[in-house]
Amino acid sequence: MNRAARSLIVLAGIMGADGVILAAASAHLSDASRLAPASSMLLFHACAVLATVALVARALVHARIGLAAAAGFVIAAGLFAGDLTLRQYAGHGLFPFAAPTGGTLLIASWLTLAIAAAWPRRG
Question: Does the residue 27 lie in any domain?
Fold first, then answer.
């Protein structure tokens, strides 16, 4: 397994841990309505990163395109969740339209994964 794939697995683990932390905070804090969607985005997309890396390792999707999709999941979920979490705790976001930018990048990453599956396979 190459360095990029291992790095994505590490980042997926961090995303999963952060998702659980935000879920717990959402459950125990009053008026923490932004944390539940932030948690969901991190948890769902941590699994998507792991699954995509596994698909690449099994050569079921185009390797470079698949890894690009996985990297997109990491960046986009981080943007989305980071913006919502910062809004919850600091009262302001990362930058204007950070969450919608993350959401748009998540859509693009899913479509990229579809392209990786349709493209000729390479190891």
Answer: yes
Query: Is 123 within a domain?
Result: no
Q: How large is the average pLDDT for residues 115-123?
A: 79
Helices and strands: H and E segment counts in the chain: 4, 0
Structural domains in the chain (count)? 1
What are 28-35's contacts with CB under 8 Å, separation 24+? Answer: 32/88, 34/84, 34/85, 34/87, 34/88, 35/84, 35/85, 35/88
pLDDT digits (tens, 9 = 90+) for 58-67: 999 999 999 9
Domain interval for residue 50: 3-118
Distance separating alpha carbons of residues 63 and 8, to the nearest angstrom: 13
Within a domain: 13: yes
CB distance 68 to 75 below 8 Å: no
Rounded-to-integer distance, Cα 115 and Cα 15, Å: 24
